Amino acid sequence: MNNSGSTVGDSKVKEEKPSKTTTNRKIDHLEICCDDNYDVEMSKSTGFEDILFVHKAAPEINFDEITLDTQFLKHKFNFPIFISPITGGAKEGKKINKMLGKIAEEYSIGIGVGSQRAALEDSSLESTFKVVRENAPTAFVAANLGAIQLNNDYGLEEVNNAIEMISANALVLHLNPLQEIIQPEGETNFRNLIPKIAKMSKELKQPVIVKEIGSGIALEEANKLVRANVAAIDIAGAGGTSWSKVEAIRANQQGYDVNSRVGELFGNWGIPTAYSTLEVSLLKDKIEIISSGGIRNGLQAAKALAIGAKLVGIALPIVRLSYTSTEKQLVNYIEQFIQELKTTMFLVGAKNLDELKQVPLAFVGKIAQWLTARGFNLQE
Ligand SMILES: Cc1cc2nc3c(=O)[nH]c(=O)nc-3n(C[C@H](O)[C@H](O)[C@H](O)COP(=O)(O)O)c2cc1C
Predict the structure, then answer these.
(1) How confident is the model at residue 22 (pLDDT cuts 50, 70, 90)?
(2) 37-373: CATH superfamily
(3) Pairing mode of beta strands 311-314, 81-83
């Protein structure tokens, strides 16, 4: 389907890869994701509605003593929140990254930059990423590259350049097979990536985090990543932004009808975020976990943290607020999110995140069916 040069029905003839640069693509992504006229979110849910807390009428704690600080990859966070990798590589991205860097520093939370490939190709774009570290001198900042680039001649030197560009605390390598297949200029040779990820994990000074971008990570894949010595997994499950839909919209704009239709069909593809978090949390003694993908409020976040995630990641609401609204509105969103998380903890009697992991939970409906169908023991 990609780059085939064939004519299918009324589809555009593709003799060669589209000539869009990485920067143009990044701008397309921002514009599509932040335009109300496009529906880029999945219609299926994250699955968190089927994980239930048990209300405590007598929580026996003082709301004011609830604390949310945590450690992730040996770095201290005041709140268990990670601003998921979003942008950089274009002027528009620089403005957003500046605002997000400031927020990360103010709250002492984590932030990931978007893929740095654009700046490795064109060093004049480095400042669009560096602005994060300039505004977040002490926060946890993660570098970002597509894992597929390891099949594209990227080795230790390129990866280290990305890390050094922003004095990153860790490197995120994202896995995005669905996006690449729908993207007209996508790269689809995913062979042999796990050994290459293992090599990076061994050779780099900084820890490696492997991340999906909205289709989730299953226990089987997580096991391979543990064996590859990856330090953390960001499951980035289904139920939020659909990269199949985003690329379908782009493909349609460019006249690649087949890519566009296939992207629509796979718009809801993936393991819902709650299911994926639960699967990977079976390995939580061996690897640290970020739960993300469709996390939109503090109640969902509390559930993700209760089942084993160290942090929760948020992308779409944050990019929309930082692209179209004021810094104050973004701060209000974060404040509300924190208040929702604390309210949940109050109502289940958890003073801190360790206690939240001990509270009773009920798994009902589809998540219970999923766990049974996958052969997991619900009681465990
Ligand atoms: C505009 C935009 C650009 C993104 N670019 C990247 C990227 O460069 N690298 C990456 O790992 N993830 C990227 N993502 C994916 C997010 O980090 C996240 O995994 C995904 O959007 C699901 O989370 P959400 O439902 O909260 O949006 C991007 C997301 C958005 C909205």
Answers:
(1) confident
(2) Aldolase class I (3.20.20.70)
(3) parallel
